[in-house]
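Entry for the shared binder. Reason: the reviewer on the internal report wants the predicted structure included alongside the sequence.
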Amino acid sequence: MDEQSRWIRSIQTSGDRVSADALVRAWYDEILRYVRRQTPDTWVALDLTQEIFISMLRTIGSYDRRRAGFRTWLYAIATNKVIDWYRSRAARVLDVADLEGHDPVLADPTDDWVQGVSSGEAVQRLLGVLPGAAQKIVRLHVFGEQTFAEIAKGMSMSENTAKTTYYRALRRLRKEIDDE
């Protein structure tokens, strides 16, 4: 049994804080880089990364290495947190615009909520048009640099299904861009 497996086992059986700390430290930089590639600034990435590890530690009791590797499982948590953040941000932006009587499409670029929108955020909004599974596959492949085999295993699908979903998603994104 490798060191990571011992940490996980120790956390699952006794809630060992030293093992939890070691596991978080082992994965923190990689997950932060993954999240940072998808978020508008470092502070958002730091907050989301903290949420990811809190979620990981809360749910580690249900982690089963026979179903997925730890890396795959952790990236699934991270991907879901990033998607949730963008969904909640989109809802807040629309709520603020509605309350202030602004049309989000025609808003004045000096409005606070418009400032900070980067091309990276535009990409994230574009990814938001994809169905859940397709969005996860694209995020894991592009931002997480995972292979289709890794993605397929983590999402309990065939490698061909992961590839097909990915390339269909790219075609849809191209169409969305062309339509704009």
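Summary line for the report: Residues 93-119 have pLDDT under 50 and may be disordered.
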